[in-house]
Design a protein that fits this description.
The structure is a homodimer. The relative contact order of chain A is 0.21. Chain A has helices at 11-17, 23-26, 28-31, 52-63, 79-88, 132-138, 141-157, 176-188, 230-239, 257-262, 271-281, 284-292, 300-308; strands at residues 39-48, 69-72, 94-98, 165-167, 217-220, 244-250, 295-297. In chain A, strand 1 (39-48), helix 4 (52-63) and strand 2 form a beta-alpha-beta unit. By secondary structure, chain A is an alpha/beta fold. In chain A, helix 4 (52-63) packs parallel to helix 11, helix 7 packs parallel to helix 8 and helix 9 (230-239) runs parallel beside helix 12 (284-292). The first copy, chain A, has 13 helices and seven strands. Chains A and B meet through helix 4, helix 5 and helix 10 of A and helix 4, helix 5 and helix 10 of B.
Chain lengths: 310, 310
């Protein structure tokens, strides 16, 4: 997820906030060895690979246990750094943030698949569109599948063993065809996905299977939150967590020269934003709030196990 | 040029230092409107595009007139930043640092051409080799040409109007076949190249044409220079400049978190090295030394004009 959420249809955000606990979900906690009403939380860092600044902040938060999961964007410049860290931290919960967009102005990327094999995904310079809409309009399903598989295969080739798949900027939720490709790729690799089961606003896409887990709620900070209310937003979210499985998506980074340059002119999901997220999730106050509210942090690897042993 | 110079054959370095003034060269100063014996100097920043840190330091040095030229690596992550800057600075002397290698450990890149069209240049993950030797051994000339043309075309598509071509890590000087491709591509775009005319150690490659300019001397800092002798190395170089055309290649950057991560574990041509280069070329002492020694800074655009109007 990135700044462009605010420009795009807000599909994921709206969809996620309207999700409700499913009957299935009530048993997930039990399948993971917790009482039925447990508040399970995936604290998830997005956008690994984009910049060293994002990687460094995310690795630090993962190592401290401040977040329980993260996902990496395979078309980005810093994936080898992520792969090296993942190899040195084999228990870390690292998924793939499947990517068909490149949203920053002066820092772009394109497909993992050979350009000539995915022309409907790229502009004439071989770069992904910066928004979801042109992808939804132009991308051919066969090329989307080719590119998603190339991203998974590149991760495997680099020694990353992904624990889950999700979708950068929610792009893959934009059309039923892309959603179907997303689920097909996930299933063929036996991976859980960030999924939107039960969302009344979403198009009538392929539904999840019985043994596949879905989130009850996804929480993500938006540009409407005042900067001085940042910690309060997250503390309130923790205080109001419901029983079931929630994912809070955070965007970690350091507000340094590199990240300011990557995200130049875009305060939403920009460098200072990511520093604020990092400061909150690594704070003692936030850690204490998780404890006080009886929240159990889980990762996608736990869900992967639950999928395999229903 | 980067750290790998010290690991590779040192071909360029040795070659360049043994170059002697050509009869042709004695008239270049005159063609540029200076007396025949003028010390012409291209102060050239390599490796734009690799990192924001490199771009920021190089843009700053170019804007201050501390360097007179630079070149950008089109397969790297930050080319759009370079393109935006180049558009805002149409008089800046920006060439293309043609690239067939990716030498850093945790930060890699591959071809601009579609992967499937240049398989002899890439490993199975679509990444360039980290040294010159595997390129010299495996690269097919037709694929080298395809990739070099793709790099030039990408630059043009992004609005960069290159003033010259040179070769990252001297890769294109490694075999007569690659040298021939390099010259062919340069000629087809009417661009001057960093060329090694008169080098007795070089293989018997295609020779330059009468209207093409070549350097008398290329100077580049090497790992043998003690850190505390950095400024002295450059001041001595300026004091000893000969009449004719010299290029001093510098590697500018800031010794910050991003560049330290790009160049992790490689002090040669690493982040601190690039900070030292930046500190020297932007110093008052260095500027004064240029003045005291009657050095005239020129760029490749001047040479381009000289080529067109012999």
């Amino acid at each position: 997820m990135v700044r462009s959420l605010c420009r795009m249809s807000l599909l994921l955000l709206l969809a996620a906030s309207t999700l409700h606990a499913q009957a299935k979900m009530r048993s997930l906690a039990e399948r993971l060895g917790h009482p039925a009403g447990t508040k399970l939380l995936i604290l998830h860092g997005d956008d690994l690979g984009v910049a060293h600044s994002v990687d460094a902040a995310s690795f630090d938060a993962l190592e401290k246990g401040a977040i329980s999961s993260a996902s990496v964007m395979m078309p980005t410049p810093w994936i080898t750094e992520v792969a090296a860290w993942a190899k040195a931290h084999p228990d870390a919960d690292i998924g793939l943030h499947l990517t068909l967009t490149a949203e920053w102005d002066t820092y772009r990327w394109g497909s993992v698949a050979s350009k000539g094999r995915v022309p409907s995904l790229l502009d004439s310079a071989g770069i992904f569109p910066n928004e979801v809409e042109p992808v939804a309009k132009r991308a051919k399903a066969a090329e989307v599948e080719r590119e998603l598989r190339a991203q998974v295969e590149r991760a495997l080739a680099l020694g990353i063993k992904p624990t889950h798949l999700d979708s950068h900027m929610g792009t893959l939720f934009a059309t039923p065809e892309m959603m179907a490709v997303y689920l097909r790729v996930a299933r063929s690799y036996g991976l859980p996905v960030l999924a939107l089961r039960g969302d009344p606003k979403a198009p009538p896409h392929a539904s999840l299977r019985a043994n596949e887990v879905a989130l009850d709620t996804v929480i993500i900070a938006g540009p409407e939150i005042p900067r001085d209310q940042w910690k309060k937003f997250y503390l309130d979210a923790i205080a109001n967590l419901k029983p079931g499985l929630t994912e809070i998506i955070v965007h970690l980074g350091h507000d340094d020269a590199e990240l300011q340059a990557v995200m130049v002119d875009h305060p939403d999901y920009g460098a200072a934003w990511r520093q604020r997220d990092y400061d909150v999730v690594t704070s003692e106050e936030f850690k204490q709030a998780l404890k006080d509210n009886g929240v159990v942090l889980v990762g996608w690897r736990d869900l992967q196990k639950a999928m395999r042993q229903p």
